[in-house]
Structures are given as C-alpha cells and as structure tokens.
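<discrete_fold_record>
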Amino acid sequence: MPIAFKDVSHVYSAGTPYEYRALDHVDLEIQEGKMTAVVGQTGSGKSTLVQHLNALLLPTEGTVYILDRTIDANKKPKQLKSLRGDVGLVFQFPEYQLFEETVLKDTAFGPKNFGCTVEEAEKRAKQALQLTGIGPEYYERSPLELSGGQKRRVAIAGILAMDPRVLVLDEPTAGLDPAGTASMMKLFRRLNQELHKTVLIVTHDMEQVYRYCDEVIVVHDGKIRHQESSAEFFKDAHLCNEMGVLPPSLIRLEEMMREFGFAVPQGIVTEEQLAQWIAQEVKNHG
C-alpha cells in the first residue's frame, strides 16, 4: 500500500494571531521501496509534510495512511510507539541529538527503548554502526569527541538500529563537504537497494537528487506542485526553473550547449557520458 496523504492540512498556532497554514489540503501518494526527494523553497512545507509520517505532527484536517495505519484528524491516534519504530525520522543536524556517554550506548538507546534486551540492543547497534562506517574503535568514545560527519553517521545508526521500514531524512547532507555528501548519499542508496528501505529525503541539493533519487516531489506554499520520476523531471531545465528548483549543473550545461547550437542527445545523465559525447564530436569534426 502506498504512503498517502488525503486532503491533509496542518495549521500551526490555530486560533491565535500567529496562525499559519503550513500544509493546505495536500493529496499525495508515495510508493514504498523508492528513494524519493522532497524539494522546494525554504518555508514551503517540506519538513512539516514529512513529520506527519511518524505522527510527530498530526493533521489538522484530513488523513494520513502509513504502513497499514491510519492517522485521522478527527480521531486520537493509536500505536504511535510502534509507528515510530517503523518510520525513522532523522532531523537536520541530527548530531545535536546525541546524548549518551559512548557511541555504542547512544546507538543502542532506541532498540532498548522499544523493548530489546541490552544484548540484542547492542548487537543491533553494532550492526548499524558498521553499516554507517563507524568501526569498533569508536564504540567506547564519547559522541562529542567525533567529527561532524562521524556524529551524523552515529545519529543515523541510532535510527537504523531500530530497523525502520521507512527512513525519513531532513537535509541529511547539510554542512557536509562534497566527499561527505557523496558518501552519505551512497549509504542511503544502499539502504534503499540492498536493505529495501523506503527512503524520503528533504533536500535543497539537486545534484544529489539527480544522481540518487527515483522520484521528486515539489512542495510550494503548503501544496504539492509537482510529482514525477527524477529522470523525467530533470529532462527539462525550464520545468525545474518554473518550479523554483535550480537544475543540476549537468542539466544546465546541456541546455546552454543546445542554446549555442550543439545537438546534445537526450539520455546523457552523467558528466562522463557528456565528456565522451563531446570528445566524439571533436573527433568527428576535428
């Protein structure tokens, strides 16, 4: 069953002078098993949208369907703890949430909170840390002693240790250098392809969306403005610009070349392919 929003609205500070409608009658379906990007300008409602997926926020109006559960605006939600075990939400700068004495204890906290024995929780924690590239030499160190990228990996491992079916990441690569960003995105793709996690990423980084995500959802003023496969969405730089999304650099370069009269073929999706095509054109017309 797809993850679905049916006529969902969310209003902050309802009935006060500060009332703000962050989501406005949203209808949306997200297929399980995909790696989906949620994009849009700052303040568009992206984070508010994804925080409904584990009932951190509840709809003011409408209904959210998630993993055979129904969250209705008119009914008190049930089984929230189990839902939050199935839907792992990683906030922007999740390293600020680290609090335990050691890396291992911090990563094992979630499984223990959900009823695992100490032994099982530590086993899960070690598996998750290994998955995120944190070796045994870090287990007994304080999380506060780690680098920024390592802290983020530990925070993500803490969510993975609970073995969620859906992983929701809010700006997971913010503040990372290019190498750290690429490494993190490859990890998420691996979780999607090898461990069959449904992955949703809120991001402004169109380069990574283009490289790694299957689908794109554009949020604008609390509404879903567009939804399409990333391959189709990024074919047209004009569509991206219309949606207020900066196209990836490769798409911008291809469009610029076409404007100068180069017949760049469709289907080029990597810098290597474009370089090979240019080299062949130079050889043919040299």
Remarks:
- Strands lie at 3-12, 20-30, 35-39, 61-66, 69-72, 87-90, 166-170, 198-202, 215-220, 223-229.
